[in-house]
Write a structure and sequence with these properties.
Elements lengths: L5 E4 L6 H9 L4 H15 L4 E10 L2 E8 L2 E8 L5 H16 L17 E3 L2 E7 L4 E2 L5 H20 L16 H9 L8 H13 L8 E3 L8 E4 L2 E5 L6 E3 L1 H11 L12 H12 L6 H17 L11 H17 L1
Parallel strand pairs: 1-2
Antiparallel strand pairs: 2-3, 3-4, 4-6, 5-6, 7-9, 8-11, 9-10
Amino acid sequence: MTSEPVLEMLWETSDPRAVLNERFGFSSGIEAVVWLRRVVSHHYDMSLESCQRIVMSDGNALAWISTSQGRFIVKWSTTPEKFARLAALSDLTAWLASRRHPVSAPVPSRAGEAQIVVDGASLNVQHVMPGHHLDVTDGGQVHQAGVTLARLHADLRAYPQAQYMSDVPRPTRSAHALISSWLESDLSNLPQAPLDALRAHLAAASTTPMDVQLVHGDFRAANVLTRGTQVIAVLDFEEMRFDSPVGELARSAVMLGTLFHDWGPVSPQVHEALLEGYENVRPLSEAERSWWHPLLLWWSLLMVPISGDNPTGWGRAAERLTRVLNSVEER
């Protein structure tokens, strides 16, 4: 007998039963499980025994399943314009796994494919990674996250198929041009001291164009699983883009503590712990180092809601970061 799985939304407040029907075409969780059982048994060397949970967001769904071969996650999309990108990202994740990176590699189908298209859905099967989301209060975990990100950047730069990933976003303007333009917009909702500090740091930053390469795109607590102080999995490469390594490092430092329903800032000490771990593997160049502070400030200010500060305190965090940076410069 097929049991009804728990249905959840990842971050939306929509009714998950309605979403399952409207976006994925299933009238119930049981109907979705019947479909999953057929797909898994036909395309993979395993049989589905049960499905405990289905989580949805946008046109994506994840199902936690138990099979004859163990526990897995089935991840599928019903958005056709994403199919080519999803296939490319599955191939990339499989390549990273072959290079011993802590990623959740797709299980090859019977035909040897990392990503399959079936019944109007693009789908892959991944192993369940038994870990906990990164705890930014644990300095050892944060340090190791920096080490992991640096190693990831090194191999993403060497990925042999990068040139063919035409649908992966690329920057259209330099960081200097982008931030300068942003500073000319209406910023009346933002605290003045961080804005003044950002202008000063931007003026001192290198004007040498920074190299861009493939980067993860969303490296933060929600996508980093740990066990003890070790990073055991980096998840969700769907936001992958071309960017400078220091650009991703600074964005990750600012957003490192964000989870699905908790988008609070972290302390400047967490920023530095991530940087220290990163530079143990890949030291920043002088030009990249000149961008570290302006990028930290910019990403911190971008997180402040247009209506003003919010209970999690992004505006106050930007002011605290400014004071820390000023004190460092005065030493």
